[in-house]
Amino acid sequence: MPRAITTATSENAIYLSFSRANPPFPVGDPRNGYVIFNRKDLDVEALAQRQIRYLKASAEANEYLSKDPARRDRACAELYQNPKVQKEFSPYALVPLGGDVHPNDYLAWIDRELDKEPTTFEDHVLRTHLSFGGVVVFEEYIMLWGLYLYPDERKAIQSRVTQV
Q: pLDDT tens for residues 12-51?
């Protein structure tokens, strides 16, 4: 059974002081790069479907690639030779804090790329890479921070994703 956090450590101390009255960053602060929703603007089903899309695209591409693991590994190695391809899947590596890319812009780009039907084996490799990037950025910037003040809505989205 997981142990409850009862004392602040260097890793969790920053999370213990946040509250609805003291959010982790000011709403609308352009420096933070986070997405804060207003409750009236929340569409639980739309957010759940967006997360499902990233998870489904990743699963489908990975299933396709599992048919030839050696070829998949070669194609991945080739993809990572491109200096424009981010090799680390931390949400902060993909969308750096204070960087020029806003999480919504990144996710919109991922959505446009996922709209393209994969036709080659290499397209499936790229689709796996992009969809997983969408998963981690969505989870961090939308689910964690964007819905920080709305745990009930976050739980509803997670429940809906689990249902599907």
A: 444 444 444 544 444 445 445 566 677 787 889 999 999 9
Q: Alpha carbon of 62 to those of 2, 29, 115, 132, 161: distances in Å?
A: 31, 38, 17, 10, 19
Residue type, 40: K
What residue type is 29 in one-letter code? D
Instruction: Enter the pTM of the model.
Output: 0.76
Place of tokens 């969505």: 138
Mean pLDDT of the chain: 80
SS3 for 120? Answer: coil
Give the integer Cα–Cα distance in Å for 143 and 150: 10
Residue 40 DSSP one-character state = G
At 45 the three-state DSSP class reads helix
The proportion of the chain whose per-residue pLDDT surpasses 70, expressed as a percent, equals 77
Domain extents for the chain? 33-163
Instruction: Return the pLDDT at 126.
Output: 93
Kindly write down the DSSP assignment for every residue of 123-159, as one continuous string. Answer: HHHHHHHHHHHHHHHIIIIIIIIITTT-HHHHHHHHH
Residue 109 neighbours by CB distance under 10 Å: 14
d(CA 130, CA 141): 16
